Amino acid sequence: MSKQPEKIISFDVYSGSELFMGVADAELPSIEFMSETLSGAGIAGELDSPTIGHTSNMSVKIKFRTATKHALELSAPKRHELTFRASTQARALSNGAALTTFPQKVMVAGTPKSVGLGKYESGKMQDVPVELACDYLKMWLDNKPVVEIDKFNMIHKVGETDYLQQVRKDLGREG
């Protein structure tokens, strides 16, 4: 069935895959490739050359509505694993544009860059910001993996293709 995604209906934040973390907004990591500018003999000018499978810093930002035990536990100077689960509204194009849903899931792992305590304002949300520097990212759409980046294990998959597999082989990490 062909679907036209429209919007996120709702999402939850979990520590690992079990513990509900609280009400929040989340800004998921951006994937930006490391690059160098090439110039010199054999090229007419300059060209930014992205490095295969190597990404710049990635971070996830979460803003909890109020301070919670679970939100503040993310200030522990250790690696944390978070899972975001969302329900996406879509139009089922082959079924008269009927509304349907499908799941999104994002797993990230990383260490804290910053954890704020928010603000106190009567009748307002406290807005407790948390930012983790991510070394791992994996996303599924409709239960199918679409991207996986594992910086320490040199994995950069898009769909079924691991763009660093040959690099690991070149380095003698795979047979």
TrEMBL record:
InterPro entries: Tail_tube. It comes from the Bacteria. This is Phage tail protein. It comes from Halodesulfovibrio aestuarii.
